[in-house]
């Protein structure tokens, strides 16, 4: 992975999760956000907050940024993270789970 500086929203998403600050994390999404997580759909900032309470901050996840590169379409990025905590850690069936923000 060719590493580039991640956009401020991605950095705030990571830092907010690491601090356990759901409001800082939710503020990185617009009001009409869509978060797709392994077949589950979460809509709007309230959906992001609800998911985060059970999945990331809710299980004390911590993210370590491994790398960031430009994504396949304009204004998209591919971000690799190492995840630790009391919830999901690592890959599923040898595949990387995808978080699509947009």
């Amino acid at each position: 992975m060719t590493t580039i500086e991640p956009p401020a929203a991605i950095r705030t998403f990571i830092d907010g999760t690491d601090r356990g600050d759901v409001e800082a994390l939710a503020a990185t999404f617009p009001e009409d956000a869509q978060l797709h997580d392994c077949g589950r759909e979460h809509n709007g900032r309230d959906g992001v907050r609800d998911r985060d309470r059970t999945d990331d901050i809710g299980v004390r996840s911590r993210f370590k940024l491994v790398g960031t590169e430009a994504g396949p379409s304009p204004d998209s990025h591919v971000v690799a993270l190492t995840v630790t905590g009391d919830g999901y850690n690592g890959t599923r069936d040898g595949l990387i789970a995808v978080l699509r923000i947009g």
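The chain has three helices and five strands. Residues 8-101 form a domain with the Nuclear Transport Factor 2; Chain: A, fold (CATH 3.10.450.50).
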